[in-house]
Amino acid sequence: MPSPPTARAVPHAMAFALFYIVAITILVLYFTGWLARNNLEWLVLALAVAVFPAVIYL
User: Fold this and answer.
1) Taking the alpha carbons of 22, 24, 26, 32 in that order, is the dihedral positive or negative?
2) Lower Cβ count inside 10 Å, N or C end of the chain?
3) Cα 6 from Cα 11, distance rounded (Å)
């Protein structure tokens, strides 16, 4: 029987949720053209750099 999540695991899960919300927001803004209009397309590259270690780890 698995043990219930500890208090330490909850902030970890919240960090993943926050990362996904930010990533989806950046992608939506990219595909709508908002990032290009405001010269913020570098955020897509920063997102890719942030995801890269997770891809290597898996």
Assistant:
1) negative
2) N
3) 10
Query: Is the pLDDT at 7 greater than 60, yes or no?
Result: no
Token code pair at residue 11: 């902030």
* 30-47 residue pLDDT tens: 999 999 999 999 999 999
For residue 30, what is the enclosing H or E element?
A: helix 9-32
Distance CA 24, CA 17 (A): 11
DSSP type of residue 58: -
- The single residue listed with the structure tokens 């992608």 is 27
Contact by Cβ (8 Å): 44, 30: yes
The Cα–Cα gap between 16 and 57 comes to 15
Residue type for position 53: P
